[in-house]
């Protein structure tokens, strides 16, 4: 065979071998590319939702997922086994979840409180918890959920870029519990984010609503975040006064009251006023006036700025009034007889037109003790000023309307006329204690 023909044959063989190798490599690479999941190159985030009343946790989870989908991350949803997050163990649990799922960060949704939602975020291998709390006002649950979802979407975008910058740091007492086992996955193993899916709300819209990074809180910020505590049970001791009657224009008393708030905006109370006994009457006849008022109240409690509270409502009083004659009070005649004999220069009165029976002045028996029960109602307003802790200064003002009057068919020596409308005033110190609210986690401020 000529040398030129041999060279051409070798070149053709090498070309055929290269074509066969390229075909085999393409055949192997295409199945591998076809089997690669969509979005495999996108970072993974773990999303955990604590249970809440009325299915609010499911609504929050759905909204948060819808807002995170367009960001360009994958989600792994888990369900914790505890009803509320424990901040002391949240950091190690989040790191364990991030290591288990090879995730860039963990987002925790806390919907267990009735008056607020919370979002906690931990970066992978992070040493700090970031958080944001959103108050849930009456009738505005949907607004609070939408705010939570917007914030979660913005935080997911920050985690995708590598660091959380828009949430405040949560201060937690340092503990070192053993990392908990990761919870079982909920639903599908992973929810792949679709870059082409339309965004329900642009994450940039939530950026102005985010809190700046945590720093030393100022006094004004602390005053805004820390709401003044209002007691569930309270005991009040103080002074009370009222205009009782013309004979006793103003009576003072030591007031005692116990109150209970079944809900934050309603207060019920039961009290007693210790009133010193008073002597009434004239030089000829005096009696001792003793009062024992028992008071019930029902009020609506309103929160005011600067930690003040205003209670508006009514009170009903059952007043046991005792009139006891004092020693020296003698029997009295209904009318005084004319002097006899008449003084010089005075003509005696003419005799009655009839001659029999002769009329003598009617004598009254000695007075006896009398007990009456007076009932009254009054609109009242009560202002509370916080002093320290659960101690508050209370001032009260009202107008008491008398529904029953003292018995007038008594001995004239015990005559008493009570004012139909009376002015009430009082001031006292109230010591309260909230026994229904759960203890706040360490490092958190109760609202």
From TrEMBL:
Top-level taxonomic group: Bacteria
UniProt keyword list: Signal
Protein name, per record: Secreted protein
Biased composition regions of type Pro residues, renumbered to the chain: 336-353
Signal sequence range: 1-34
Low complexity bias locations: 197-209
Location of region: Disordered: 197-226, 327-353
Keyword Plastid among UniProt keywords: no
KW Metal-binding (keyword) present: no
């Amino acid at each position: 065979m000529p040398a030129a023909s041999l060279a051409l044959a070798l070149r053709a063989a090498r070309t055929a071998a290269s074509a066969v190798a390229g075909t085999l490599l393409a055949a192997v690479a295409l199945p591998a590319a076809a089997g690669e999941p969509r979005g495999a190159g996108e970072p993974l985030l773990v999303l955990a939702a604590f249970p809440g009343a009325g299915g609010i946790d499911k609504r929050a989870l759905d909204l948060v997922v819808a807002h995170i989908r367009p960001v360009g991350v994958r989600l792994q949803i888990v369900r914790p086994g505890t009803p509320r997050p424990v901040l002391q163990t949240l950091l190690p649990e989040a790191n364990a979840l991030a290591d288990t799922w090879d995730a860039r960060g963990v987002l925790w949704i806390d919907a267990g409180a009735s008056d607020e939602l919370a979002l906690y975020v931990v970066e992978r291998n992070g040493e700090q918890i970031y958080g944001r709390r959103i108050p849930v006002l009456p009738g505005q649950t949907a607004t609070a959920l939408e705010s939570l979802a917007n914030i979660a979407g913005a935080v997911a975008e920050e985690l995708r870029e590598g660091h959380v910058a828009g949430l405040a740091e949560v201060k937690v007492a340092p503990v070192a519990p053993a990392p908990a086992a990761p919870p079982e996955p909920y639903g599908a193993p992973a929810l792949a984010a679709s870059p082409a899916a339309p965004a329900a709300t642009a994450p940039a819209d939530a950026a102005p609503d985010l809190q700046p990074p945590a720093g030393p809180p100022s006094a004004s910020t602390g005053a805004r975040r820390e709401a003044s505590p209002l007691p569930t049970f309270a005991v009040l001791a103080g002074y009370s006064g009222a205009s009782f009657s013309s004979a006793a224009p103003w009576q003072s008393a030591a007031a005692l009251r116990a109150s209970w708030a079944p809900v934050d905006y309603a207060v019920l109370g039961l009290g007693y006023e210790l009133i010193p006994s008073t002597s009434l009457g004239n030089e000829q006849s005096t009696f001792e006036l003793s009062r024992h008022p028992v008071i019930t109240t029902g009020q609506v409690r309103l929160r005011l700025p600067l930690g003040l509270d205003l209670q508006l409502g009514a009170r009903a009083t059952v007043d046991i009034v005792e009139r006891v004659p004092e020693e020296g009070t003698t029997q009295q005649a209904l009318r005084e007889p004319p002097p006899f004999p008449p003084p010089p220069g005075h003509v005696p009165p003419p005799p009655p037109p009839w001659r029999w029976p002769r009329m003598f002045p009617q004598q009254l028996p000695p007075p006896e003790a009398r007990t009456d029960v007076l009932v009254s109602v009054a609109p009242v307003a009560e202002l509370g000023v916080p002093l320290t802790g659960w101690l508050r200064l209370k001032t009260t003002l009202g107008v008491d309307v008398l529904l029953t009057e003292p018995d007038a068919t008594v001995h004239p020596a015990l005559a008493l006329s009570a004012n139909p409308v009376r002015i009430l005033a009082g001031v006292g110190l109230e010591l309260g204690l909230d026994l229904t609210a759960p203890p706040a986690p360490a490092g958190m401020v109760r609202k």
